[in-house]
Amino acid sequence: MVGMRGMLLALLVGSAQAAVTDVTLDNGLRVIVQEDHRAPVMVSQVWYRAGSMDEFNGSTGVAHVLEHMMFKGTQTVPPGEFSKRIAAAGGRENAFTSRDHTAYFQQMQKDRLALSMQLEADRMANLVIGDALFAKEIQVVMEERRLRTDDQPQSVVYERLMATAYQAHPYRRPIIGWMDDLSNMTAQDARDWYARWYAPNNATLVVAGDVKADEVIELARRHFGALPARALPPRKPQDEPAQLGEKRIVVKAPAQLPYLLMAWHAPTLKDWEQDTAPYALQILAGVLSGNDSARLQKSLVKTRQIAVNASAGYDAVARGPGMFMIDATPAPGTSAAALEKAIREEVRRIQRDGINEAELARVKAQVIAADVYQRDSLFYQAMQLGEYATAGLPPEALARRVDKLRAVTAREVQAAARQWLQDDRLSVAELDPQPLQAKAQRAAVPGVRHVN
Amino acid sequence: MSIKTMSIQRFFFALLLSLPLSAQATLAIQNWQTPQGARVVFVESRELPMLDISVDFPAGSARDPAGKAGLAHLTHGLLDQGAGGLSDTAIAHRLADVGAVLSGSFDRDRAGVTLRTLSSATEKTAALEMLARVLQRPDFPQAVIRREKQRLIAAIREAEADPGTVAGKAFYRALYGTHPYAHDEAGDPAAIARLTRGDLQAFYRAHYSAPNAVISLVGDISRAEAEAIAARLAAGLSKAAAVPPLPSPAPAASSDVRIAHPSTQSHVLVGAVGMARNDPDFFPLFVGNYVLGGGGFDSRLMREVRDKRGYAYSAYSYFMPMVEAGPFQLGLQTKLEQTDDALKVAQATLRQFIADGPSEAELEQAKSNLTGGFPLRLDSNRKILDYLAAIGFYRLPLDYLDTWVAKVEAVDVAAVKQAFARRIDPDRLVTVVVGAGGAR
Complex ipTM above 0.85? Predict the structure, then answer.
């Protein structure tokens, strides 16, 4: 549920970017700078257009494994030294892998950008992937999979539903990778991935904060400019063939409550000026669950009390296709089937009767306000620029996002619901809770309190 | 869900809850009391046309009466579910209509309500009216109580599938015994089922009063306006006297708790009663813990457990400073068959750190990260608000922010060693392992 809320936030938060500088160096490295002088800090992010969607069967998860190996040393920077140097400079750093990209970032005082660029440029070209370090790190990644997927029933439901809803498109594969692929992954798989995708012409450097754009670009030239561009492998579209009827799965996992996840194939933003559906679907998600008494909450949670939680989510920005999703947890005494029926009724109600002007105005007010609020976070501003760039959308698409959302009409929302939320495009997953085990036994009871 | 949009990260930082406070010298914090006794902390910030307010009360789960675990949590959750004659839906819609975001925070010490709104007059006025209404006139409608009890109990039961949650609850129970910090923040399903509307009203009146309130504001308003807002918020609260202090927890005896769970990993927690927010050892413990397990990849636990052995994705330690002594906790998760090996490595790392302390080089590295990263702690209104609320709630001195860097700098190896030795006895720790059959 929290995750769904995350998605909603992503849709409501717009952007009122001040001037964004967007240049491409001779070697193909794209540099995007957002000046923001509120605090004497900056965030620097390097985005590679290589995520789990670029993987092949048999080595799923390699994009993320490589992300881990990027901290394991280069020809001149020993293992662990990257993090140590950034930490010594007062920095915070991390990295993340998604279906579409892999990104690395540092947050530091503004005058320490050169250190961050020096280290990032070095590992863009000079990474060393040793067998011994790989053997340890792949164990870490398998622990990560156990922690974040295998022992989280709702994550398992999501993973299995994606693998069902998509049959051809690579979005069917989990970012973390299947456990069997991780077990059989080799250091050479990681080296091949690095050689294939880590090049300046497959990367975007995003810097936001108390910096001057021309100085950032000059610094980027100095540190990254000498790295040679490389030929990138062709990317095949791998379009998902049209779904030919509703799909359903049941996932059995140890859990206390059932859970329902519904996903309809939907478009994402490709031509930001001409497309209308992605904007209408964002508004639709807001109408369904954009506030504590939006349609799903009001009808299912508050009035009928057949769900303890219900929410909708839709992400318009991606390299690949989209999904409109609704998830819900049935209230005690309600079956997942009954809840699913009620959710379908809510969807049909919008398809039949449309939405009212008050609901539309409410979602738009939230979009406008969120556009101001998001400027409180430097990191989030940089994230958005990086996501748009990776998805092939220009900074103008981000700058005009709020205008486009404000232009959406009630009729367009209804039309989008009719066109995209059709049964033949739908996949449904139901979590069938299995017992957590007989009563938890304790080998030892909590000790007797010691009183001083 | 989160995997889709948030993607997956190389590691996650456990707990920023132990917010160290710091500030630039330029952050001008103002504070005063309203005539009703509410304490106010304010920073004027004009860059963005928005306003953040939080109102906090000592109404966390440590204030649950005996046999009513969950009362504090349920009371807090019901504030905006019907107030001053407006329904939950009317409140949610009026807030959304002006783009305002009302949210809650709740832990063992504190129950808070936070408002974020645009600072333009129409939006701000409407949003503040809703904030005042939910704080001052919650209706606790009977039907809504029934509904929210059911939802709360369902959420608690749903979390029982999560081994990390199970371990966390057992850890506090083992550590705090009969102290009010022992039971889980969310409460106990059986106790929640018995709560009545009268319980909620009485708890609300006794805890959500002006003398108990801390009002924090950051944003696009003047001092005069901040005073007017704070006065209006405080004036409508009850006059109930400030709550009495919580008892001090006794140090926990050693214990070893093993809980069966069908997970593929064991969740391991090791710890002891740590320090209070105003503890004189705060800085030596905070800075020293960076070296032990607070500094991510810069820490010994991460190096020993993850980098060298590949035992876990996350290995960490932290002190959570609370009104009374909060926990020191060390944690990791690992596949079942290597549980004992990973636990041994973590114990040995802790034992050695307590015996020898950090090296000079490690301590320098910690200090340089903390002081060098200091501006990042205050680079947004949201972060500043959190710090103001902590200053107000924990009654920290106003110059606390100005002296923070100097206090970090002043920590030396001897101070860290002594402070850890005073707090953590490696032969007297609470250990919780959740996973497999619970057997050893």
Answer: yes
